[in-house]
Design goal:
The protein is of the alpha+beta class. Helices cover 30% and strands 27% of the residues. Strands 13, 14, 15, 18, 23, 24, 31, 34 and 35 form a 9-stranded mixed beta sheet that branches. Helix 2 packs across helix 7.
């Protein structure tokens, strides 16, 4: 019986493994150090967890392999074939800068150097008419040059190919003849959308990553099969779904940013279990904080993202706001004499001062130790914390320079960190037209439960949800997703002049392609769900909003009204008299994967006793004698009031004074926060 589901989330420091038993819904976890080759770390974790792969019915994986390849530029030699005169589109970019006023900071170089960006004569106009057919002699000459250079992948990016990919397809055929076995990405297949820089950039990233991720998924699949796994390996992508290795070779860029999407998916699911359709995910790790938002049960999705500024990847992605704030973030003083926190981090080496591994600058972890919010050990006793070293770091770097008492200095460090985290939540909520008071905050990651209640109080968020295993919640997210692909097609027209039958016909074409791809991945037709949206804008603008579209679509007026309403929520105004234009048709194709239900526990009526008590500073001033509970001792239905500390293997939960907490039937701790 294949009753186990296994999810693996590979991070830079740890590999998290989440194992769910379908029959009982019970979850157990394993955490191992990541290895130079991530596959070795995965297989070691599987072995250490005692998993019999022959009994595994689903193996889902969130990976940083694509993200790390882009960041480190450890990419195979990739070439680009362009329309004559357009080889520099990806280097000209949009002529914008990440630091607008820093005249000395240059945007990083393109993923493909100019010498490997070759051109061929061809041209298609904006209506799709072939003005100049592909010069096949020149195309074959270019292909042979690339063969001699030993390139590992090629991106084909022709002007206006989004409306007619005929010349690109022929160029691909020639390349495949001259470079057999080399992956070829065409912009008309990868991203058939207007805006050549975004289309070219996405295609280049897709081509460059293809050899990397195909090699990785092939090797991992072989190792799993060798040890008894018989199903498809499912890979989490940025859009919030999974894809099989059959799709990876054609859409490798979808795995860039794979890891951070898992946490957003898990936080949304946990909030829904607790009865909250609106939720904000606060994932605080050692170095960074990832913030995501779900509204009315749906994660917020964006197409405006990148791994490195200047080179957009226009595949749909769950929107995640990342800032440099975590347990290892350093407290420091700027040139104006103000206390700052992050984005610099102590990292794993030397780590926080309290680790005793050479760190001397105070971190958020050190401040929490000084305040008594963290005990003297982490990870079930595997890491011992030294309060004296933490106190010395805080005293030297903050207390003495600012003339503060030790605990007031530690409190100041935490307040600055919480303010940074709250600002990130504001950016993804208030700045998008959402009121945080209408949301629950899901706090996870190793440090999320330490800061969650304070961040919620600052933003007047009424409830904080702490999952049973905060430190491996992202791995859990890999178990809660379906096979998903996103399709799009440019559709430039004024809404007033649109024929709904023409829009419906375009959607039908996209749906046929979606059904074919999901069938290729083994998804039965009855398990396929298709979701339509239309990107619209006020005419004269170029920023668009996605509006849900009915199936079948019979009226454009409904789309226009829905657009006005969305614009009002997003930007706080609407202009009903302004003409509206259609920009793009989008289709999300979902292949439903059967999901096991998390175990539900009935209240026992048992009131557990604290395992210890210790003084904890929640505000500057006197400490409070605080009970300390062990998480595994807390049964469903248990209610308690702050102040309290709850310790567990992968995290510590802070329940501050003035709050109440309850353990629900899924063993989440729900903290009620008063303004």
């Amino acid at each position: 019986m294949q009753t186990l589901r296994v999810a693996v989330d590979v991070g830079g420091t740890f590999t998290d493994i989440c194992i769910m038993d379908e029959e009982t819904g019970l979850i157990r976890i394993e955490k191992t150090a990541s290895s130079a080759d991530p596959i070795d770390g995965i297989m070691y974790g599987v072995e250490r967890a005692g998993i019999d792969l022959a009994k595994v019915g689903l193996f889902s994986h969130g990976t940083t392999i694509a993200t790390n390849a882009l960041i480190t530029r450890r990419l195979p030699r990739t070439a680009m074939v362009c329309t004559q005169g357009f080889r520099d589109v990806i280097e000209i970019r949009r002529a914008n800068k990440e630091e607008l006023w820093d005249t000395y900071k240059d945007v990083v170089r393109p993923y493909i150097p100019r010498r490997d960006r070759l051109t061929v004569p061809e041209r298609i106009d904006a209506s799709g008419t072939v003005l100049t057919p592909l010069d096949e002699d020149e195309a074959r000459k270019v292909a042979r040059i690339l063969a001699r250079r030993g390139v590992a992948a090629v991106a084909v990016c022709f002007m206006n190919a989004y409306v007619n990919g005929e010349n690109e397809r022929r160029m691909k055929e020639i390349l495949m003849e001259e470079l057999p076995g080399i992956p070829i990405s065409t912009s008309s297949a990868v991203l058939p959308e207007i805006f050549e820089h975004e289309r070219f950039s996405t295609t280049v990233v897709n081509a460059a990553l293809s050899p990397v991720v195909v090699d990785y998924t092939t090797r991992l699949g072989d190792r799993l099969r060798r040890d008894g796994y018989t199903r498809d390996l499912l890979l989490l992508h940025t859009g919030g779904g999974v894809m099989t290795p059959a799709s990876v070779k054609d859409f490798a860029a979808r795995l860039a940013g794979s890891g951070i999407a898992a946490g957003a998916i898990a936080s949304r699911h946990i909030a829904m279990l607790c009865g909250y359709r609106n939720s904000i995910g606060l994932d605080i790790g050692g170095t960074s904080t990832d913030v995501s938002l779900a509204y009315d049960g749906q994660s917020r999705v964006t197409k405006d993202w990148h791994i490195e500024f200047g080179y957009p990847i226009r595949f749909a992605s769950i929107e995640v706001m990342t800032i440099g704030a975590g347990g290892g973030s350093l407290a420091w003083t700027d040139e104006a004499g103000s206390l700052r926190n992050g984005p610099q981090s102590a990292g794993a080496i030397p780590g926080p001062a309290c680790y005793g591994t050479g760190g001397t600058q105070p971190t958020n972890t050190d401040a929490n130790v000084v305040l008594g919010r963290l005990g003297t050990s982490l990870a079930g006793g595997k890491v011992t914390l030294d309060p004296a070293l933490a106190a010395e770091a805080v005293r030297t770097a903050v207390a003495e320079p600012f003339g503060l008492e030790l605990h007031a200095a530690a409190d100041a460090i935490i307040r600055v960190a919480n303010a940074n985290m709250a600002d990130a939540v504001r950016l993804i909520s208030i700045s998008r037209g959402y009121d945080p008071r209408d949301f629950a905050l899901v706090a996870f990651g190793g440090a999320g439960a330490l800061h969650g209640a304070a961040v919620a109080r600052e933003l007047a968020i009424p409830a904080v949800i702490v999952p049973p295993n905060p430190g491996v919640t992202s791995a859990l997210g890999c178990l809660l997703v379906d096979i998903q692909h996103d399709f799009s097609e440019s559709f430039l027209a004024a809404a007033a002049d649109c024929d709904p039958a023409k829009i419906e016909s375009a959607f039908v074409r996209l749906e046929a392609e979606a059904m074919e791809r999901l069938a290729h991945e083994g998804v039965a037709s009855e398990d396929i769900v298709l979701q339509r949206t239309v990107d619209m804008m006020y005419q004269g603008q170029w920023r668009s909003l996605a509006v849900p579209a009915p199936r079948p679509l019979t009226s454009v007026d409904e789309l226009v009204e829905a657009f006005h309403a969305s614009h009002k929520r997003e930007y706080n105004f609407r202009r009903d008299e302004q003409p509206v234009g259609l920009f793009r048709l989008n289709l999300k194709a979902v292949g439903m994967v059967p999901k096991a239900t998390l175990a539900s526990h009935e209240p026992t009526g048992v009131t557990p006793e604290p395992t210890s008590r210790r003084p904890v500073w929640f505000e500057a001033g006197a400490p409070v004698d605080t009970p300390v509970y062990t998480r595994t001792d807390l049964p469903a239905g248990f209610r308690f009031a702050g102040p309290a500390i709850v310790e567990q293997v992968d995290s510590t939960v802070v329940v501050p004074p003035g709050t109440t907490a309850e353990v629900d039937r899924f063993l989440n701790i729900i903290i009620r926060v008063s303004e």
